[in-house]
Amino acid sequence: MYNMYLDYGDLSIGKFKVRSTDMDKIYNQMAKPIILDGFKKGFNVKQQIYKYKLFLDKIHKLKSDCYKIKASDFIMYLSCYMCLYKLDNTLLEPPIILKIKNTRLAL
């Protein structure tokens, strides 16, 4: 297991547990169905990028104003982040992925 830390703008938005360091696997699980659904509904790439960026900006504003963010919004944030990572990688900083250490105290 790994922790993936996502930053957006000047804030650390959150950390998410992931099973792999491979961004393509994370993308396939979290974002690919959303992007394909957007294409089926008739949205082009520019429109999808705009919508995903709008959601990231909304969560960034909530976080910077110290509002509580629901867990479902964090999951959607990760999905939108991964969509943008695949569609327009220039907008985002790469996430930091660190292995979770198993620390057990020996008595």
Give structural notes.
This protein has 107 residues and is α+β, with helices and mostly antiparallel strands. It has one domain. The chain has helices spanning 23-30, 32-40, 45-64, 71-87, and strands at residues 2-8, 11-18, 96-99.
What key phrases describe this protein's structure?
107 residues, alpha+beta, 18% strand
SSE topology sketch:
Elements: E1 2-8, E2 11-18, H1 23-30, H2 32-40, H3 45-64, H4 71-87, E3 96-99
Antiparallel strand pairs: 1-2, 1-3
Helix pairs in contact: 1-4, 3-4
- Separation, N- and C-terminal Cα atoms: 25 Å
Order of helices and strands: EEHHHHE
Residue runs with pLDDT of under 50 for 5 or more positions: none
What class, by secondary structure content? alpha+beta
How much helical structure, as a percent, in the residues?
Answer: 40-55%
Oligomer: single chain
State the domain count.
Answer: 1
Radius of gyration: 15 Å
How can the largest sheet be summarized? 3 strands, antiparallel
What is this structure, in a nutshell?
It is built from four helices and three strands. With 107 residues, the protein is α+β, with helices and mostly antiparallel strands.
